[in-house]
Automatic annotation (TrEMBL), chains A, B:
Protein's name according to its UniProt entry: HTH tetR-type domain-containing protein
Annotated coiled-coil segments of the chain: none
Residue ranges for the DNA-binding region feature of this UniProt entry: 32-51
Keyword entries, A-Z: DNA-binding, Transcription, Transcription regulation
Any single Pfam family the record assigns to this protein: TetR_N
Keyword hit for Transmembrane helix: no
Residue intervals of the HTH tetR-type domain: 9-69
Amino acid sequence: MSNPTSHDNPTFQTILLATEELILEKGCRNTTLKDIIERTGLSKGAIYHYVASKDELFGLILKSKIEQENEKFNQIVHHQMSGAAHAGQFGVVTEFFHSRQNTNDVGNLIFIYLLSQDDEKVKSILNSIYQYSKSTGIQWIEMGQTNGVIPPTIDAEKMAALFMTFSYGLRVTQLLSSSEDERIASSDIFKLLIQTLS
Amino acid sequence: MSNPTSHDNPTFQTILLATEELILEKGCRNTTLKDIIERTGLSKGAIYHYVASKDELFGLILKSKIEQENEKFNQIVHHQMSGAAHAGQFGVVTEFFHSRQNTNDVGNLIFIYLLSQDDEKVKSILNSIYQYSKSTGIQWIEMGQTNGVIPPTIDAEKMAALFMTFSYGLRVTQLLSSSEDERIASSDIFKLLIQTLS
DNA sequence: ATTGACAAACCGACGGTCGGTTTGTATTGT
DNA sequence: ACAATACAAACCGACCGTCGGTTTGTCAAT
């Protein structure tokens, strides 16, 4: 189907980078193959040599963005969990969502783009990402419970699902809010959630 | 631009109904003008006589769906607020989200479709819907505060924004979860949110 | 004669396909 | 040691069907 070469192929990286740039400049829907061809200097055939479809290309970028987020999160987790002082109850979770909020816009754009595909295959990919993120969330909630940071009465799975749902909601509201003020406001909202949970 | 006739024009209603059906059957992205033409038996010119663009057509359906939701919600509010017994703290809000969750799938599909447009005009419409829903939410939270159902210490605006964000997140997760079980699970998650808030 | 309500032909742009060409890289014969 | 051969990977660009949208035409009602 695709992936004929290794993923760190320089030409392929050029395509990915150009597409990511274009998405940030023009948005998902307005980024066409012609744009990508012009920016990379490659041909249509070259692009379809590395990728089976435009959707797959966008999907690959989403995947890498999600992985970047998770990596960033893991760093925060390990830093906070090993640290002596805690920012308060749910401090780790707070940091995670804060970092997620300030994440690159590409993630949000492609997230919504893929959601609109109405394609079972794409949705299953998104669903697996959701499941993975949730299972990771469960792990740190349980970690927090063993450390005494989070009350043991809380159902870790449900709480993780709650945070995931809220995280997705934040993605949407951030995409809707254009001004910087509104983004700050959405940050406040999350703080309120943390406060009421603490 | 559009709306040359009254909105209850039978031909126009036929177009709206057929489009809504198709969206439910095939999803937003796979519903083309050709499909709508074939189902209605009309021509392309006829559709563009009533509507300026495909996006406007989809947007009109979204708008009516949102209005249906709000109407349904208002009924619940007035029923609960006037009733003697309350289902508990935030009972009204709980009911609202429950009703919203069981809402027709068309709303979710078009919601995501419009989000993916990267169009400022479309986004401003969605944003105005968000603002309206939030302001309505503020009203019932304040109502609940005067009635003593909701603690007066809560910032009504932030709390309303929190619920809106969560509501949008639910839309996304429901769209991602295909099985019935997962939908029920997302309902549980909301109950957890209510519990922790109470 | 003008206008509203449609039909039908038409347009450019899009994503995707396909046959063909170039480039790189082993493998072989001498 | 060095061509010659073989073959696959990388790449090109003309071509296709379909899409959303536009323009022109028709015809009954006013």
